[in-house]
Write a structure and sequence with these properties.
By secondary structure, the chain is an alpha+beta fold. The chain has 13 helices and 27 strands. Strand 25 and strand 26 form a beta hairpin. Helix 1 runs parallel beside helix 11 and helix 2 packs across helix 11.
């Protein structure tokens, strides 16, 4: 139900009476008005959606830093500033040499990049010279008994393949096997050296090339990959007396593969791509504690301030070019963090432990900012005793508040319940500390966490997530509640002890939804393989001995270059299957034996 203002005020009085008594005499109030002021600026058109590395994101970082300075927090960033800088890959572009020549019956003709063909963003940068085979859609799906590679040898060759998938009884429901990253991984597994992707006329009337785009994955596909026009593809297929359209129509009609060997055709291909490296900034301020025995223990209060800019990757309106304002996600959490920083700063003499307030960048790209911090901590990470994270706290509805991480330290669940004064919130609690926000980076380093969240809504990752749609009185309640918990954690003599939570298996990876592994990817570093930020307690990965920091480089027979490879390799197995997994741990290479399990739901 919708609460009246008088009921809100009564609840606020009840909430602050005990937990805030140490500070309430001189502290400025946490108010809906101040929260709204922060959100209106952070989610304004002026900041253009705060995409990591953009001018809007940098302006937001400057605003946050200035607020922390005004409150009296000391800078904790690089060279005496409030900023911890880190580099990230923001995109991909053509480098110096990109060539493609097609030789048919001894006659060679060069194709023009950006006109006849274009490299795909996940392509490796190398050269290939050799034959080509048409392999339909390039799909091998045992669950549907469909295999475009049946009966043909593509080892050492280039494979030409169609985008998407043939129609099925469930409307093209081939799932992940239809994704180009999967097709690249499958072709590489079978020994192919390059993939040549063409858009069939059944999928698009136009013959436009795909955009050169970076897909935010660590590592390339380990295989050359280009997109060519149908016109260029037809010139190659003409040697076999057919066309892209004819082959696609036949495959779709018969629902059977139609490989075509092209013995009189060879390709000479060189792809050269260059990553675009940009700078991003976490914003960090500190309030030093006063208790001689506790001040070296750190409480981190964090939120991410970046969002999706003008859309594109990550947007749920991917074809819309418009400012994605990100008022709830996550101007709301950032505003809450700022209000708590101001509130605690006003009574810093009462602090026992040291408090660090952090605004992370790059969360939307895969927890880049928090991942960078835990791998490059400004204060030794073992001194951090708890991390409190706020992400999307602006849409309180029906008084329902989600608090994750209550099982990550003894007493967290009791504390969360105790400070829910007169059942102000209808609490939805989970014990697990992992999840799709910045607290996961800290929990992966064995730090207890709590995560506050008012749930997904219809404006999530859309341009319509605007400042005027937030419930500011409700937001005020959430921030005060988080502050009450932070106060208790600051004042208690006992250090929160980390607990490894055996999480439910609902977050399995792979197109085979029955299979559960329990690994948590680390998006914060560019590596060859899949680096782990953590492993779920009690999971197959944990039982096999995998741990945070390991890099999976081979899963069964598949070499793992990136997260996509791991996802698709996992999807080839079923519960109960044993899999040999090769990892890098530091300078060592280790072989682990994993028994995959079944999801519990």
């Amino acid at each position: 139900m919708k609460l009246t203002r008088s009921v809100f005020l009564l609840m606020l009085a009840l909430l602050v009476m005990v937990p805030f008594s140490l500070y309430s005499q001189s502290s400025p109030q946490i108010t809906a008005g101040e929260l709204q002021k922060h959100v209106k600026y952070l989610a304004s058109d002026e900041l253009e959606g705060r995409r990591v590395g953009s001018k809007g994101a940098n302006a937001a970082a400057d605003y946050i830093a200035n607020e922390l300075k005004t409150y009296g927090l000391k800078p904790l960033g690089d060279k005496g500033t409030y900023f911890q800088n880190f580099d990230f890959v923001s995109g991909i572009k053509l480098d110096k040499i990109n060539t493609l020549a097609v030789t048919i019956s001894g006659k060679s003709e060069g194709l023009t990049p950006e006109k006849d063909y274009r490299p795909l963003g996940f392509s490796s940068s190398e050269s290939y010279s050799g034959g080509v085979v048409f392999v339909g859609y390039g799909i091998s799906d045992t669950s549907k008994k469909y295999n475009d590679y049946a009966g043909i040898d593509v080892k050492g060759k280039a494979v030409m393949l169609l985008r998407n998938a043939p129609p099925s009884d469930s409307l093209r429901d081939f799932g992940m096997v239809a994704a180009l990253r999967y097709k690249a991984a499958k072709a590489r597994e079978l020994g192919a050296k390059a993939i040549i992707v063409v858009t069939g006329s059944e999928d698009s009337e136009n013959d436009d090339l795909m955009k050169l785009a970076y897909d935010n994955a660590s590592g390339g596909a380990g295989i050359l990959a280009i997109n060519i026009t149908r016109k260029a593809a037809d010139a190659i297929l003409k040697t076999a007396g057919t066309t892209v359209k004819a082959l696609q129509l036949e495959i779709n009609k018969t629902k059977s593969p139609k490989p075509v060997v092209l013995p009189n055709v060879s390709l000479q291909l060189t792809v050269s791509l260059k990553e675009i490296i940009e700078n991003a900034r976490n914003v960090v301020g500190i309030l030093e504690g006063n208790d001689p025995s506790l001040k070296d223990q750190i409480i981190i209060v964090g939120a991410h301030y970046d969002h999706l800019g003008w859309g594109g990757e990550g947007s749920l309106k991917p074809d819309t070019v418009a400012i994605h304002h990100g008022a709830d996600d996550n101007a709301s959490g950032t505003s809450g963090m700022l209000e708590l920083a101001q509130w605690f700063a006003s009574s810093k003499a009462a602090l026992k432990r040291t408090m660090v307030f952090m605004a992370f960048s790059g969360e939307e790209e895969g927890l880049l900012g928090s991942g960078y911090y835990v791998n490059h901590p400004i204060i030794p990470l073992e001194k951090t005793v708890v991390m409190l994270n706020m992400d999307m706290i602006g849409r309180l509805k029906g008084r329902r508040l989600i608090v994750n991480g209550v099982g990550t330290s003894q007493g967290f669940e009791a504390l969360v319940k105790k400070l829910n004064t007169d059942s102000m919130f209808v609490l939805s609690m989970t014990k697990d500390g992992f999840g799709a926000s910045d607290q996961a980076s800290f929990y992966g380093k064995k730090i207890p966490v709590l995560f506050f969240f008012t749930d997904i809504h219809s404006d999530y990752h859309r341009p319509s997530d605007t400042w005027d749609k937030l419930n500011y009185p409700g937001m005020e309640l959430v921030v005060r509640y988080a502050g009450a918990i932070a106060t208790d954690l600051d004042q208690t003599a006992d250090k929160p002890a980390y607990i490894a939570v055996e999480a439910p298996k609902q977050q399995s990876t792979g197109r085979n939804s029955r299979v559960y592994m329990g690994t948590i990817p680390d998006f914060g570093e560019q590596v060859q393989g899949m680096k782990l930020s953590g492993v779920r307690e009690g999971s197959p990965a944990a039982k096999a001995g995998l741990q945070a920091g390991d890099i999976i480089v081979k899963f069964g027979r598949v070499e793992i270059k990136n997260l996509y490879d791991f996802t698709y390799a996992l999807g080839e197995y079923k519960p109960g299957d044993p899999v040999e997994v090769i990892i890098k741990r530091g300078n060592e290479s280790k072989t682990m034996h994993v028994i995959l399990e079944k999801r519990s739901n």
